[in-house]
Amino acid sequence: MGKVTKDMSIRLTLACILVFSAVLLAADLFAFRWIGWYVAWRGMGRENVARMTGTLYAASVFGWLCLWALWRLLKNIQAEVVFDGSNVRLLRMIAWCCAFAALVFLGGGFFYPPFFFVAVAAAFMMLIVRVVKNVFQQAIEMKSELDLTI
Amino acid sequence: MKIIVNIDVMMAKRKISAGELAERIGITPANLSILKNSKAKAIRFSTLMALCHELRCQPGDLLEFQDDAEEDVSK
Question: B2-74 architecture in CATH?
Fold first, then answer.
């Protein structure tokens, strides 16, 4: 891939992270109101508002951590620091965030079943990120071997 | 158990500096230093060939195998 195309791709991903951050911020600011309207529209019990809002706020903590780690990861890649231990740590952090978000939504699924699908999606995402992390770890070992081949 | 690189011995015999040797064999002085200090994980045949050519020696003169077991017995 050409350098210009690669830079554009990284910038596009950074822009996507900013969009996701804006969406998450809006969700954090207005989730209580939106969920209130949704619960009223669906005719669900009022006790569900606090439960669903609690689930979303608990998961949003991991969402913010995940977005921050993705931002750092892309900044490292932009600075051409690719096969580095810090990136493996960031990927591990993203995987754990996905795992904790999956657990939060798993708990939430008991009073609002569609949350089970979100939990499965987050768990699957964790799996993918962990595989990528393992590939990175192996690549770092290979790179250090190559760097020390004279 | 390790491989010891005896480049400095041969360099002293041939009276050649590290900088000059690095330039002649086409590697950086930093990489030559890694090799001299036995920090390298592998050596390319092309590098070994260039070293043997410039130092007028055999690979066996540059590389030495040291067995831990033998080392322990001698202690």
Answer: Orthogonal Bundle (1.10)
